[in-house]
Hints:
There is one protein chain. By secondary structure, the chain is α+β, with helices and mostly antiparallel strands. The chain has three domains: 9-76, no CATH class; 78-106 and 183-246, Alpha-Beta Plaits; 124-175, no CATH class. The protein is 41% helix and 17% strand. It is built from eight helices and six strands; from the N terminus they run βαααβαβααβααββ. The strands form two sheets. Strands 1-2-4-3 form a four-stranded antiparallel beta sheet. It has a two-stranded antiparallel sheet with strand order 5-6. A hairpin with a 2-residue loop joins strand 5 and strand 6 (241-246). Helix 5 runs antiparallel to helix 6. The radius of gyration is 24 Å and the shape is elongated. The two termini are 31 Å apart. Bound molecules: flavin-adenine dinucleotide. Residues 96-99, 197, 201-202, 205 line the site of flavin-adenine dinucleotide.
Amino acid sequence: MKVYLISKNTLEDGMSKFLRDRDLSWAHDNVCDPELVVEAAGRICYMSFGDKQHRKTTKEYISNILRQGHDSVLEHASFTILVDGLTRALSHQLVRHRIGFAYSQLSQQYHDESAAEFVQPHGLDENPELKTQWLQWCAATRAMHDSLRSVNLKVSAFSHLNAKEQQRHSRSMARSVLPNATCTTIMITGNARAWRHLLSIRGDIEGDIEMREYCVSIYQLLLNSSPSLFSGFEIIEDGLGRYVRSTCQ
Ligand SMILES: Cc1cc2nc3c(=O)[nH]c(=O)nc-3n(C[C@H](O)[C@H](O)[C@H](O)COP(=O)(O)OP(=O)(O)OC[C@H]3O[C@@H](n4cnc5c(N)ncnc54)[C@H](O)[C@@H]3O)c2cc1C
């Protein structure tokens, strides 16, 4: 699995214009824009600019927001991550996170899956006999997929469909045999509160190795991009690999 940071939000000059219009000042650090947007949003709540600006650094300001649980302010920061080479099984778990996330996933109707890859489950290498069976089963699945992909030419009930809809139908039939292990690609935009929630409930589940790897990968991207918004987590290593653990009480 590979993860890529695609975008994050920016602080435009509207904030400076607003401050000028109100004759206010805001002394802030030279940090990433999502952190500045969050600080600006928090300060708007109390209009704590100029004389009323008590906490000086953005880092201190954001850590205070996190400590107080003023979490809705974190929703103003957003990060778009592209995930490539994860299983359909993992992607199904990810899209269960409904709040604060947007998803765009590779289609199995519009994309030809005859060259689909399968992600080998963790631990299979330790059992060569089982691994051989798993690989044989993958090959058989792919063969079945390819047979079904050409089937609607032989099903008269669908012969009136135009070429595009025939293709959609045949790919729908064919994908019915593709397993949870099928490789997929998904682009996910989430706000900082949503990403933190995901890391805190998914990052350290012992038996879910792919989810752990996913959480470690996105946590590293997010932390690198915004150290203050993603403070309060740590990466731990155990016999199964690495995972993300919340350090907040
Ligand atoms: C260990 C584990 C096992 C799981 N097993 C299963 C399973 O067997 N079957 C299954 O279907 N799912 C399972 N899930 C998925 C789980 O039920 C959630 O759907 C998923 O983790 C998303 O979490 P969430 O609802 O907190 O996130 P989001 O959907 O992003 O919601 C974020 C938060 O918003 C609030 N919220 C969201 N929607 C509502 C609402 N309608 N009403 C009130 N508050 C709301 C809640 O506080 C929620 O925590 C499992 C998850 C874990 C971590």
